[in-house]
Amino acid sequence: MNGLAMFDPVLLSTFVEVARAGSFSEAGRRLGLSQSTVSEQVRRLERLAERRLFVRDTHRVALTADGDAMVRFARTILDVNEHARRYFAGSAKRQRLRLGASENFVRSRLPSVLHDFLSRTSDVDLELTVGLSDSLFDLLDAGELDMVLGKRRPGEARGQLIRRERMVWIGTHGTVVRPETPIPLVMYPPPSMSRAMAIEALEKAGLAWRIVCTCDGLMGLQAATLGGFGVMVQPQSMIPAGLIELPPSPMLPDLGDVEFVVASATRHPRGATAELTEVLLRH
C-alpha cells in the first residue's frame, strides 16, 4: 500500500454496510446504490489496502481476517469523521463573546445575568476577563474585548447606565478607626476607581491615610480586611461576606456614588453582545 494513501470514508462506509448486511445486493439496497457500484467500491478499498477483505461465493459474503480488522478500523475512522463534521458544523453557527467584567460584579450579579442570558441564547462561547474597570475599558478600546461590565463616575459618558449605587466604607464589627493614626486602607492597585475615590475623599477632608494592603483580587482584600489590617471600599450592595458597612464617622467621609455601565466595542452591537446588553438593562 502506498504510504501516502488515505482510506476514503465513502469506501469505508460501503464496506462496513456490506459486512453488516452480509450481501452486496442488500448493502446496495440500504445505501441506494447498485450492486455493481457497491462491488466496485469494495474492490477499490481492497486495492488501497492491498488485502482481500471478503471471501465471496454464490451463496454468501464473509470477512477475511484482514476484513475483520478493517471493520474495526473503518468504524473508528467513520466515528471520528462524524464527530469532526458535527463539531465544525456546530462551530460555524456558534458565536464568541469576549466579555470583561469588574470583579465585584462577577462575585455578585453576573451569575444570575448569565443564567438569564443563556435562557435566551445557547449558541455562545464565552471568554470572560475579570479586572479593574479602567483596565477593561483599555482592552475594549484595543479591540481585545467585545463588551465590558464596569463602573464609571457620575457625569462620565462612557457606556449605558445599568444602575447607580453608593460607595461605602467596609470593615468588621471590631473595626476601630482612631483619629490619632492614619486611616489604614486595604485597596486595589491603580487604576482602581474605588482606590481613587477613597483617597480623594480623605484628602478633601484633610485626613491622614496610608495603604496597608494592596491586592488585585477581591478575595485578597476581603481576607486582609477580615484579618483586621484596615478598611476597604465597595459599592453598598456588594459587601463581601463577613464584612459590614461601617457607620458614619468624621474619620470616614462620604465617598459619593458610582455608576455601573455596559459598554460595547461598536456603537450598534449585534448578536450575542446585543442580547447580553438587553438582559443587563432589564436585570
Note down, in words, how this protein is organized.
InterPro entries: LTTR (IPR050176), LysR_HTH_N (IPR000847), LysR_subst-bd (IPR005119), WH-like_DNA-bd_sf (IPR036388), WH_DNA-bd_sf (IPR036390). This protein has 283 residues and is of the alpha/beta class. The chain folds into two domains: 9-91, Orthogonal Bundle (Arc Repressor Mutant, subunit A); 95-283, D-Maltodextrin-Binding Protein, domain 2 (3-Layer(aba) Sandwich), CATH 3.40.190.290. 43% of the residues lie in helices and 23% in strands. The strands form three sheets. Strands 3, 4, 5, 6, 9, 10 and 11 form a seven-stranded mixed β-sheet that branches. A two-stranded antiparallel sheet has the order 1-2. Helix 1 packs across helix 2, helix 1 packs across helix 3 (35-49) and helix 6 packs across helix 10. The model has no long low-confidence stretch (mean pLDDT 90).
In short:
Keywords: DNA-binding, Transcription, Transcription regulation. This protein is α/β, with parallel strands linked by helices and 283 residues long. It has helices at residues 9-21, 24-31, 35-49, 65-93, 103-106, 110-120, 133-141, 193-204, 218-226, 271-282, and strands at 54-56, 61-63, 95-102, 124-131, 147-152, 160-171, 183-187, 209-214, 232-235, 244-245, 257-264.
Strand composition percent: 15-25%
Helix content: 40-55%
The end-to-end span amounts to 64 Å
Enumerate the spans where pLDDT stays under 50 for 5 or more consecutive residues.
none
The top-level CATH class of the largest domain is Alpha Beta
The overall strand count is: 11
- What is the radius of gyration computed over CA atoms, rounded to a whole number of angstroms? 33 Å
Count of helical stretches: 10
Shape: elongated
Question: Which H/E pattern describes the elements?
Answer: HHHEEHEHHEHEEEHEHEEEH
Structural class: alpha/beta
